[in-house]
Amino acid sequence: MGKVSKGILLLTVFGLMFTSAVGCATQQKPESRQQMNRTQPVRDQADLRTTPRTPAPAPDRNADRTRMGQNMRVADDVADSITRLKSIDSATVMVTDRTAYVGVMMNENYKGKMTSKIKDQVSKQVRKVDPSVDRVFVSANPGFVKRLGDYARDVRNGHPISGLLQGFSDLVQRTFPDAR
């Protein structure tokens, strides 16, 4: 066989393969696509992905604790009632939804640490003055007390609460990481 006949044979074989491939592929007509839309919804390409682009976050067991709505307020009446307790010198109380965050400064005569007994007294006092509160978190950490006071001052001065929520949420998560 000569070079020319091999080329013609090769061209013919490739031509037949190409024609077979194109001929076997089905082409969807516009009418059938419209009919399909009436009988079943067309899926979005995102639904067809087998693996997500980013892994789904693990469920947060403490999601309710950290989820804060737009209902942030300073509870000065609650703070005033807490300062009447024997070992508390001053208090700041912020309430978001049904959760109160309390920062307390211990009386200078009090030499011990924050105890669960004091936390329980503070929690009872908060719920007594504001029955809408379900959960109470109490800290005497000076950094938390200062930052809580800063947020309370910003709320009193009319700063938009939406601008404060993320920082406040971060502060709460750092201060009360194991709270349930």
TrEMBL record:
Residues 1-25 form the signal peptide. It comes from the Bacteria. Residues 27-42 have a biased composition (Polar residues). InterPro entries: Spore_lipoprot_YhcN/YlaJ, Spore_lipoprot_YhcN/YlaJ-like. Keywords: Signal. Pfam families: Spore_YhcN_YlaJ. The keyword DNA-binding does not apply. This is Sporulation lipoprotein, YhcN/YlaJ family. The lineage of its organism: Bacteria, Bacillati, Bacillota, Bacilli, Bacillales.
